[in-house]
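Blinded run. Sample ID left blank on purpose so nobody reads anything into the name before looking at the predicted structure. Input follows.
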Amino acid sequence: MSRKLAPITKWGTDRKYKKAENFLLRPSVEEEAMKVATRVLADIREFGDKALIDYARRFDGANISLRRLRVKPEEITEAKRLVDDDFKKAAQEAHKRIAAFSKNGLRDDWKMATPQGGMLGERFIPFDRVGAYIPGGAAPLASTALMTLTLAKVAGVKELVACSPANAEGKLNPYILYALDLAGATEIYKVGGVQAIGAMAYGTKTISKVRKIVGPGGPYVTAAKRQVYGDVALDMVAGPSEIAVLCDTSANPAHVAADLLSQAEHGTGSEKSLLVTTSQKQAEAIRSEVLKQAELLSRSEPVFQVLEKGMLLVVVKTMKDGIDLCNLFAPEHMELIVKNPEKWVDKVFNAGALFIGEWTPESVGDFAAGPSHVLPTGGTAAYFSGLTVEDFRRRTSLIQFTKADLEETLPVVEAFGRVETLDGHARSATIRFE
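Blinded prediction complete.
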């Protein structure tokens, strides 16, 4: 049993524990990926469709042309024929749950009266056109189609654009196509990676610019999204998957091991899995299960990459130390598998999504529960939130003063105008009473 795979270490607040603290220091975006993304995005901006096709052929390995770039209705019909009935039933159930959760998350427009008979309020307006990135290379994430565009549809977005990499024959995975159609996609393009992000952000002759890009991706997609911010709105930094599990001796080691491995199989090699427990014996039992179960997974090669450099099992003295360490890690997904987990929920501040209790594996969040699985990664859960239906709408403030309202606030306007040396600001109010 290799000591290099899924090592066990200790952590506490009494002194420095280098191994655990180094594990926390992962970049939200990888430097090499940023360099590649810069070059590709510049080409997409300058050369448009030509660069888009060139990079799709080079990076996606896809036999694609401009004529075949957009998915045609007959391709969706063929996908529906190829997809098995069990998956259709599962996708429809997931879609129903995601839509229900999203509808409950919608905020209503509201108004309040001002002291002198005017009105203040907020209005929520859906974007007219959004783009979703659907990973389809290392793993065809059909669930991401539902976890992005379903929310946009519920929010009232009219134009729902999706990009996903084609295979060598220039086709999209039929399960992704089925899910995109179910979610309400109005345009689907066979392009992935940095080039897809560039096309949606800048626009080309074939793919019109979107207002906002959402969805997860590997290091290169994440780097590209970061660089197009400002040209287009973004959801968050949603890169390679990660999970933290905080458990005590009440947890079943086999279950915990399976949960740790669940995020190790995506295939980028940058995934992270952190186990935090109050028992050395429990850590050893979980490690044994991790190594045993890893051999059984169909995607064992990427899993063992993560076991070597992206998984750490940490023993702490107290549950409070465990909570502190998880908050420092700020994981995309966090599981709390302890006795009376509810008493610790309010202590978890930094997690994209929190899975509470032994019957809530992270996989239900990925596929079925209802909240979107598009979540912040790389420690950014300390300041970003996961994708919600409100990410597909803009908020506009409403302000309507009466003459009496303006007169009442005139001293405030004049005072700030004087202090900030912005007399033009103040005059725009005072002139109305001259």
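Unblinding after everyone has recorded impressions. The first strand starts at residue 8 and ends at 10.
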